[in-house]
Amino acid sequence: MTCYKSHYYLRTIFLRTQTMQQIVDVKPYQVPIPLHIRVIKKWKTQMMDYLKSQATDQDLCYLFVDKHGAAIEATANPKKETYFDSKLKIGSCYKVGEYISTKSREYMKVVPHDASLRLGTMTTFEPLHDISIPTYYYNFATYDMLAIRKAHPRPLTGNNNDLIFS
User: Which of 2, 33, 56, 62 could bridge across to 18 with cysteines, CB 3.0–4.6 Å?
Assistant: First the structure.
């Protein structure tokens, strides 16, 4: 048995023993264990090309939430939007498998999670009829967190008398 075949065989056995995972337990670069989620939101990130004065789509993004109220961002190739529109409907629940878990982006994070999901054409979406998964996601700040969230991370331009923050 070659190394590739033995790796595939062990991975298959492992996945069969894992029935479901919570979003909070998803770690970057781990083996994909199925998630039961609801699709909360969909949007596209864009990159501005200032030389051509036009914006280009960078990622197709989704916000997933599980029945425990935890959320994770999922991204896909924007050129595959028609494919994902046929698979995912906003507000619907799915069992998602065969995704790729990566580190979440640092700039303008959508949710405070260390991992994000990368979706592809091999990702599986099995419809669920689970009404226990929330239809909204909230990330409230405690009083102790207000100062941290209010603080500006770094100045972009300017001098000591005239600073502009992002």
Answer: 33
